[in-house]
Fold these 4 entries.
Entry 1:
Amino acid sequence: MNITGTIDRPLTLDPQKQAPMKPSTSEPAVPAAHDVTTAGANDSRQNRTREMQLIPEALARAHMYERLHEAEQERHAARLVTARRMQRRAERASRRARRALALAVMQ
């Protein structure tokens, strides 16, 4: 039993070892001079592949930037809450001091 493979499932994945494609009789034969060079296509495919490989890195970088921005905002909000608490404490101390001074002057 000799299994040759199909187009979808070739016997080998190595293109050098696969059988060459036979020209179809329904398609007109086009000279190779009119064929577009594949060097540009390979370069663009390689660049596209490199870009696709860098997408997770770019997403991670954007996510980390967003997390750093959120952390900075939370730190700013915490400092603001602390500053307001200290201001209220200082105002209360100021009112107590005025009241104590007023009581001392009245006696």
Entry 2:
Amino acid sequence: MLKTLLFILFLLLSNLCISQQYVDLFSINYGKSAATGYENNYQTTTITNLDADLTLPIKLNEKYAIISGLDFSNNTLQLFPDVNDNNLYLTRIKAGINITHSERWSGTYLLLPKISSDYINLSMEDFYIGGVAVLKYKKSKNLSYKFGLYASNEAFGLFISPLIGLYYMSPSSRFEMNLYLPNNADLNYSLTNKTKIGTDFVARGKSFKLTTDSVRSSYAENNSLEFSSYLQNNSLNKNVLIRIKLGLSTNSFEVYPIDQKIAFATTLFKFGDNRTQLNTNLSSSPFIKIEAIYRFDIASK
């Protein structure tokens, strides 16, 4: 029965992988920072975050596959000194299609609607729509490139980001590089068939509307950058990867009045930004994180 289920899953996923030899169907991680200081203030806060990602691809035929899924995140911290913790939530649906255009080219096209706020008195004001289009080029068995564009409306206005990616696996399969810039990057090396060491980078670009006295009065913009090194092991189950991470986060959580927006933003620049920041900046701080990934290995099927 198990072999039958794995074979069916292989058929569902087989045309979604360009050089990359696996698909991460589910991941969840929990992290906590060390004491994080406020600029020009002796007080500190602790930042915790929980992230979960579910992807469900369904192959229709040799050319088309439906992609669906769900992302959830929760950041907890004090945005201001001497206040209770703020909980910043995001729930996002992934809905789209993967198209195999030719032997070397394929494309992924997704709508990404989301609800993002402190989830107090939820309403359509917390709803945003975004989308991403990514073309993938298979150079060889172990090398592929990605080119794309991401766009989303946010609490601060329109955000647009070009995307460029590269995936490489060494001939020995011991070294792996997976770049999806400017969002994330991962480089790892296999010590044994069950243990890897690696380093990664994650850029967070989110906004959350905030409630004060039952009124949407402001929003938080999170542009934190996270750099970490990790130890990975899959001794419990070959498809379940457990990672322990140690890293440093820049902790950018800026709060602005709800009616102050910008013209639009890209990854590196903000245009028409005349906003007044309401809170003080946070310092960078180290963090520890534990992560679990369910990875379906196509190469071995």
Entry 3:
Amino acid sequence: MSAPKLVHRPSSAGGRAVTINGDIAGLARDDRDLIEFLRQAGTYDAEHCLDDPHWIEWRGGRARRHEAA
């Protein structure tokens, strides 16, 4: 079973698409953007979930890296 929050591979222009429970949350250009998306989705203590694979699945690149591919 995959994590309910997906951070997709970095785009060619930079940033990573974020999907939460199957819905597109937006484009995260850094961890602050991702934390805000998580908070808007009701994730408690969002900043501590970034490295937890039960909460977030990082696809197609290193975790917490948002630079252009």
Entry 4:
Amino acid sequence: MAKTQQNPIHLALDRNTAVRLVEQVASGLTALIEQGQLRAGDRLPSVRLFAETHSIGTSTVVEAYEQLVARGLLLVRRGAGFFIAVRGVPASPLLSFLPPEPVIDSAWLLGEMFADERVPIKAGCGWLPGKWLDGEGLHQAERRISRAPGTQQVGYGHPYGYVQLRQLISQFLANWSLDVPVEQILTTHGATQGLDLIIRTMLKRGDTVLIDDPAYCNLIPMLRLADLNVIGVPRTPTGVDTEALDTLARLHKPKMLFTTSVLHNPTGTSYTPACAMRVLQAAERHGFWVVEDDIFRELGQATDPMLAALDGLQRVIYVGSYSKTIAPSLRLGFIACHRDIARQLVHTKMVLTLTNSEITERLVHGVLTEGHHRRHVETLAASLLGAQARVNARLSEVGLTPFTTPRGGMFSWARLDGCALSARDIADRARQKGIWLAPGDFFHLSPSQETWFRFNVAYSDAPELFAFFRQL
């Protein structure tokens, strides 16, 4: 038979604080449970009695009780009331799961690195520190959306994406002289899904595609999973090697080129206007599509060319994202393309994942319109440019050669000469000293004869990193 709470509960509630009464009740009861004053099996006062005792509304009590049910602190028994739940026995530290020591390879970079928190200096990671992101803008947007009617938050979104967000994307692209109506824009679950939709929709098994070499490390396995013939076009400090591009296109008749025009991952380079024009001329001459992976556009320079704008979305399919400037947790990207291609891509998107989360889309719209984001991006771009200059200088001092002069963005690409160890061997030694490195092999189609590393400049301005290379 269930026990009954003998002593009445009296919580000190403060009506002059910003903390909601619901939260005060929930935290007060939690404290009594943790202190042992309320024990497993004790029955709480009825909702009506608790409300009368504390001079608060019954709805406040119900919401607080239900919060504790959701947290596993209370049980509800129909017709009997709310009872203190039996607390689970804490797991012994000896039985806690410890992941195995990581092997530094592409699988680790794609998966385990996101979850492995044991290495403190994340010089090889692909994201920004939380304090560099637009947390304040996101919090303001969250507060705004929490006040919106519930009917706006419970349904499926639009297949193409939240229309007001797509209108903002259209305005953003117009800043680079790309006029594109909202029906030619669709949102995606990050830029990576955008690339996947393009691959699934427009390519078939055995097709030949060209990519930057080195390239975005996720793109290489995505293309290989689709059983495509993947050929690399050498990357130079001014963009792709356009002579090599023309030769490879003539020999292999590719269906598509995947390239990054601004602040390329991993090299940090951007196209010059001359390179951009030659790439588009090659695409027209040889009849291939160009996928412009342009997720760092906001962090680039105003003079950086946009292939999609120069082409007018005739042969270029444009992929963008907000993960780098707002927060990667939002997982929201977009594609701008020809109207007919947009319809095909939306069909593939709906088959695979249905719509995007409209709550996420509204959050991004809120961040972009609350008036802080532009200044945040300007500050972030300046901070990254300064960090890149410092990191490049320090890398040069300890024997590495940066690929190019600082242009901003998240990454520096540098070569180590005169060391007999491979990049992966060096990365493994670094991990043992608490440093994550990203060896160049992760970004090449085939192993390089040179020892390259990608450095995330937001994490790489660390004395331990430079001391490690100096010891090598």
